[in-house]
Every structure is written in structure tokens, then in C-alpha cells.
Write a structure and sequence with these properties.
By secondary structure, this protein is mainly α. It is 69% helix and 0% strand. The N and C termini lie far apart (69 Å). The mean pLDDT is 72.
Length: 61
Amino acid sequence: MHPDVMEEFPSGPETTEMEDPTVDEEEAWKAAHAELEGDSEEDSGSNSEDANEEELSDDDA
């Protein structure tokens, strides 16, 4: 027998509908996250490039 509807589909903040962001809000969010990703890629990117150069030099030897 199936559980009652209320038990099967609880209503809470994770299932509550909300308004979609406006285009301006979404673009601002994307710009802010692009800056954060750019900062982290610069830090990790230089390290990964150095690691790749070391791997290539080991293969050549």
C-alpha cells in the first residue's frame, strides 16, 4: 500500500517555489563568480603548468 500523499511528498523550503532571478541579477551573479573562478584558476593554473613541464622533462630524459 502506498504512503499518504503528505508523507510521500513533504512540503518544505527545499521544495518551495521561488521567483527566478532577473536578467540583471543573473548577470551580476555570473560576473561575481567569474571573478572568483579567475582568481582561483590563476593560482592553481600556474602550479599545474609547472607540474606539466616537469612531467614533460621527465619523459624526455
